[in-house]
Amino acid sequence: MRYSSNILIPVLIALLTVAAWALLNRPADEPPWPNRIQGFSFAPMRAHNDPAFKNFPTIEEIDEDLALLQGTVHAVRTYTVESTLAAIPRLAAARGLNVTLGAWIGADPDANEIELARLGEILSKGYRNLVRVMVGNEAILREDVSVSELTQYLDRVRKMTWLPVSTAEPWHVWLKYPELADHVDFITVHLLPYWEGVPVEQAVAYAVSRYDEVKAAFPNKEVIIGEVGWPSNGRRNRGAEASLTNQTRFLRRFLAHAEQAGYVYYVMEAFDQTWKTRIEGATGAYWGVYNTDREPKFVFTQPVVRIPHWQELAGLSVVMAILLLVFLYRDSSSLSSKGKGFLALVMYGISTAAVWIVYDYTRLYMTPATAIVGILLLVGGVGVIVLIMAETHEWAEALWLRRWRRPFPLRAVPDEELPVVSIHVPAYNEPPELLIETLDALAALDYPGYEVLVIDNNTKDPAVWQPVEAHCRHLNEAVGERFRFFHVDPLAGYKAGALNYALRETDPRAEVIAVIDADYIVQPLWLRHLVPAFQDPEVAIVQAPQDYRDADQNAFKAMCMAEYRGFFHIGMVTRNERNAIIQHGTMTMIRRPTLDAVGGWAEWCITEDAELGLRVFEEGHKALYIPCTYGRGLMPDTFADFKKQRYRWAYGAVRTLKHHRHQLLGIRKTTLSAGQRYHFVAGWLPWFADGFNLLFNFAALAWSVAMVMFPLQVTPPYITVALVPLVLFGFKMSKSFLLYRRRVTATLRQSFAAGLAGLALSHTIARAMFGGFVSGGLGFFRTPKLAQAPAFIRALADAREEGLFAIAFWLAAGLIMLRDDAFMLDVRVWVAVLIVQSIPYLAAVVVSLISAAKTLPASLVGPMPEMTGAGSTARVEQGH
C-alpha cells in the first residue's frame, strides 16, 4: 500500500498538472493575417543600435529588413531622416515599397532645423514611392514643442512639397487641439489601447470607437492610423496585459476589421526595438511583429496558443516535481496518504511556478543587466525551492504522520538498577535567591542516587555566590551529602568551561550527566521518568523541553512563551523521528562515557549544547526527546534580552554548521544518516532565509530609490519575480498558524502572538547569520533574569535598527506611489512587496513596546496548555 500511494498520488497530480497546462493553452481561432497589410511602422534598429548615441544600422542592414518585408506590406512609415535612415526611400523603391517619410521634431530647435533641412534634401530628389510626410511624432504629447511651434514647422514643410503633410498624435491630442487640423492635409492618429489600460477583449472595439470619434470631429479630413499595435511583453497596465498571445489576438482582430472598413493604417511596429527600454521602460522593446533576430514572433494564420510549446514545459515541470518528490519520499513510510498528497501538491505547484517564471524571464531580451539579475534570481530561486521543500516536509510530518516511529520508552526500573546521575548547575552572577530555589527543587527529586554540582564561574561579588555555597551546606545537612559547590575565578570557556570543570569533579560512580540552567525548577519525577531510557545502550542523550514559569507576569512574556513552544512541540518532535534533535543546555542528560569519549563540551562554541549533540550523532549514538515538561525556567525580561538570546542561538548555529560542514556534507566520513544531515541543514534553513532576506531588503530599497530618482528609466522588478516574496510570506504565515492551532493546541490569539514575536526576531537572526559567517569571536551573552522592563524611549531604542528599516520601506512605498505610473499593476505589486517586507521590522518595534508596557496583562495572550506529550511521543505516567 505504501509503494502504491507513493506512485499513485504523484501520477494523479501529474495528470492534473498537465491538464492545467492544457487548459491554460487551449487553441483559440482568430482571423488570419492578411496576405499584405497596409503598412508597418519601420525603425530598422538592431539589438546593438541606439539612436540616442548616434548608433544607426548600416545601409546593408536596412536593405535586409526591407527585403524581409517585401511582398507582405504596401508601405512603411519612418520617424526620422537622420544618418543612414535617410536612405530608406531609395532602398524601399528598389523593393517596391511605398514610404510615409517622417521628420523628428524634439525639444531642441537647432536639431529640428537640421532635421527639416535633411527632409528637404530627400524631398527634392523626387522619389515616386513617397506617399506622405509626417512632421513630428507625438511632439505635443511629450510637450517637446507647443502647438504654435509645431504648426509653424508644418506650414514650412507643406510649402516645400506637393505630398500630403501631417503630424502624428494620439487621438485625444487631436480632440484637445482641433486647431492642428488647419495646418495638416490629413489626420494621423495613434490607437494604442494598451497604454490606456483597455483589456484585450475590448481593445479593438475601443480603438474603432476612438477612430470614429476623431473622424466625426474632422469630417473634411482624411484620417489615417499612424500606429496601432500591442506589446508582446512588459508591464501590465491596469486591465491590459502585455503578452505574445494578446499581441497576436489584437493585431489579427484589428487587421480583419481594418481591411473590411478600408482603413489606412501602420502596424506598430515591424521589429522589436531594445533601445526603447531606456525611454519607455520594459514594454517599449516588445511592439514588433518580428523580434530582433528578424523572426516572426507569432503565428499569422493558425489558432493562437498562449505558450505554443507548452507540452515541453508541462513535461519539464512534471519531471522536476518527481525529482523533488523522490527526495522527499525517501523516508515517508509513516506519512499518511494526505501527507503524501500534500507534499506532491506543493512540489508540483512550485515546479510549475518555477518553470513558468524561468520561461517568462527568458523571453526578455538579455542585456548584461538582465543576465546578471537572471543569475541572481536563479540562485535565489533555488534557495526558495529548498526552503519551501523543508517547510512543506515539516508541515506534512507535523500533521499527517500515521504513527510515531520513536516513542519515548517509559520504563519502571527498580531503584537498585538505576544509575547514579550527576546534575551540573553552571552559574554566573546569578541572583542567590533564584539559584537557591533551583537547588531546593533538586533536593526534592524522587531518585535514589544523584549528586548536584554547582559551578559558579567568574562571579566577582562574594555576596552573590557565598549565600549559595552556604545553602548547599544546609541542604547536605538535610538530605545527605548530595550537593557540592565550586566557586572558580578565573575560569575560561564560558558555560562550556564550567561544565567541563564539573565533569572533572564528577563522582566516578556517575554514569549519567544531567544539566540544568540556574533558574530551572525541576519536577520530582524528572530523573525517575527519563533516566531509564539509558537502558538502551545506544541511547546517549535524553532531552526534555525548555519550559517557563513566568508567562503569567505580563503580555510580553506570554508572547515569548507562545513563540518558544512551537519549536519544542513541532520542530523537536519531527526531528526526533530521525534521531536528529538539537540538544539543549538545560533539561538534558548525556551518558558520561559518551561525553568523555567525544572530548567534553566545546569551549570554542557559544552554543556548546547543540554542538555536542551533533558530535554525539557523528559517533553513531542515539538521542531521545520527550515533549513533556519536567522543569521550568525564566524568560528574558525585555525585548533587548530576548534578541540577545536569539542572536546567540543563531550565531552559534552558524558556527556549528561551519565547523561540521564536512561531516554534514558527507565530505568527511561519519555515521550521520541522511535524515540527520537533512535536519541539521534544513532545520536551520529558515534562519538562513532571514539572512538572505536581509540582502534582498537592501537590494529592494536600492531599487526603490532608483525608481524614485529615475522614474522613466527604472521600472519595478519583473512582476512574476516580485510575487515570490509575497507568496513565500503567505506560505510561511499559513504554515505557522495552522501548525500552532493543530500541534501546539494554541488559540488564535496565541498563534498570532507567537507569529508576531517570531517575526520580531527576523532582523536579529539575519544579523547573526552574517556575523557567524564572518567572525568567530562573539562573547557569551548570559540571558539576564529579573531585569527591569525598559521605559518607552528605551524600548524604541532597543528596536532602532528595525524601526529605521520599517520607516525606509514605508517611505519608499509612499514615494513610489507618487510616480505617474502608480496605477500600473507591477508598481502596486512592488509597493505590496515593500509593505510586506516591513512587517517583521514593524513587529520588532511593536514587541519591544509591549515589553516596555509591564502592566499589559498576560491574559491578553492567554495561558499555554501544559506540555504533557499527549498525542505525540509518550504519555507520562504519574507515579513510578
Automatic annotation (TrEMBL):
UniProt keyword Transmembrane helix, yes or no: yes
UniProt cross-references to PROSITE patterns, sorted A to Z: GLYCOSYL_HYDROL_F17
Annotated signal sequence range: none
Catalytic activity annotation: a 1,2-diacyl-sn-glycerol + UDP-alpha-D-glucose = a 1,2-diacyl-3-O-(beta-D-glucopyranosyl)-sn-glycerol + UDP + H(+)
Keyword Membrane carried by entry: yes
Coarse class of the protein's main subcellular location: membrane
Gene3D superfamilies in the record: Glycosidases, Spore Coat Polysaccharide Biosynthesis Protein SpsA, Chain A
Membrane topology, record value: Multi-pass membrane protein
SUPFAM superfamilies listed in its UniProt record: (Trans)glycosidases, Nucleotide-diphospho-sugar transferases
InterPro entries the UniProt entry points to: GH (IPR017853), Glyco_hydro_17 (IPR000490), Glycosyltr_2/OpgH_subfam (IPR050321), Nucleotide-diphossugar_trans (IPR029044)
Domain of life (superkingdom): Bacteria
Single GO MF descriptor: hexosyltransferase activity
An annotated GO BP: carbohydrate metabolic process
Keywords assigned by UniProt, alphabetized: Glycosyltransferase, Hydrolase, Magnesium, Membrane, Transferase, Transmembrane, Transmembrane helix
One Gene Ontology cellular component annotation held by this UniProt entry: plasma membrane
Enzyme Commission code(s) on record: 2.4.1.336
Protein name listed in UniProt: Beta-monoglucosyldiacylglycerol synthase
Taxonomic path: Bacteria, Pseudomonadati, Pseudomonadota, Gammaproteobacteria, Chromatiales
